[in-house]
Design brief:
about 325 residues, alpha+beta, three-stranded mixed beta sheet
Length: about 325
């Protein structure tokens, strides 16, 4: 199959599977590798030691798939309903964690897309990736024309905003590549930087994970000076996305799995704290909160309760 036909059928199948966007890019060394080194050397990766361990794979995607030539970058819209402001005794959960764990849903779709690719080119080697392999997903998404990188380091699409899960299909086949997104979507706007409760966005396009509430709540690790700034955020943080002008409007996700489950938007703190291990597993095992484990989530509950008693709203 020639590159144009292969590209066309892969994109069409990706959209049929439920992805919102699909674009193709060549695979090679990216300038982001040097940015990654600078970020690591500055200590901003906090406890994410996997970046340093897998530097060679970031530098050379052949470590992920030998002979890789192309990547089909994919994005899935997860915007659903607006968040409800928590009251006393309630906690805020980031939108991405309201429903089914996106890894579960997207991996299932990627496997079908891999099989579809092999059916059309039996000799091809392919590999699907969703957020767990050493690969510059956002940078390749920009190269594939899916959007631009915002000052908060999120991929922003002019119509869908930044409420997007990213995935990649690596292939040893040549595809017809899309034009990179060159438009500056942020210009002189700095709303995301100003909105960050802890100053984790220390400069445009620079994130300090040591101060990032999303990172801290996923590990239940809270340096004393930052505890009040966490406010009522029980898990994750959408502060920089909520203020982004590109997120003012956009279509709802077509995936019912991303809509908030009962008791999530917002979450009842006492109810979560009272769960035993079996109840916790049943309720959260297929959600992002399940990865935190019961004890970790209870630590987050305690912090939010302390902040509410102290009047700290973040």
């Amino acid at each position: 199959m020639d590159p144009q036909n292969l590209t066309d059928v892969l994109k069409a199948e990706a959209l049929r599977q439920g992805f919102s966007l699909a674009g193709a890019a060549p695979v090679g060394t990216l300038p982001d590798y040097e940015r990654l080194l600078t970020w690591l050397d500055g200590g901003r990766a906090a406890g994410m030691t996997h970046f340093r361990r897998h530097l060679e794979a970031y530098r050379d995607p052949n470590r992920l798939l030998d002979g890789v030539r192309s990547v089909l970058m994919l994005a899935m819209n997860y915007r659903t309903v607006d968040p409800v402001t928590p009251g006393r005794g309630q906690g805020r959960i980031a939108r991405y964690a309201w429903g089914t764990d996106y890894h579960v849903l997207i991996r299932r779709k990627l496997r079908r897309l891999e099989d579809f690719h092999r059916q059309h080119v039996p000799s091809a080697e392919v590999r699907g990736i969703v957020d767990t392999a050493p690969f510059f997903e956002r940078a390749f998404a920009r190269l594939a024309g899916l959007g631009g990188i915002g000052k908060n380091n999120m991929l922003i699409h002019p119509e869908l905003g930044s409420w997007l899960f990213l995935a990649a299909l690596l292939s040893t086949e040549e595809l017809v590549y899309d034009r990179p997104q060159e438009r500056d979507l942020c210009a002189d706007c700095r709303r995301c930087l100003d909105a960050c409760p802890t100053g984790a966005l220390s400069a445009p396009y620079t994130l300090d994970a040591r101060r990032c509430i999303s990172y801290l709540t996923q590990r239940s690790e809270f340096p004393e000076p930052l505890r009040p700034a966490v406010g009522d955020r029980l898990f994750g943080c959408d502060a920089c996305q909520e203020v982004c002008p590109w997120n003012r409007q956009g279509p709802q996700s077509a995936s019912a799995e991303f809509f908030p489950r009962p008791g999530i938007n917002p979450a009842e703190l006492a109810e979560i704290a009272a769960l035993d291990e079996e109840q916790f597993r049943r309720r959260f095992r297929d959600t992002p909160l399940g990865r935190l484990r019961r004890e970790g989530l209870r630590k987050n509950v305690t912090l939010v309760e302390d902040n509410q008693r102290d009047g700290s709203h973040g």
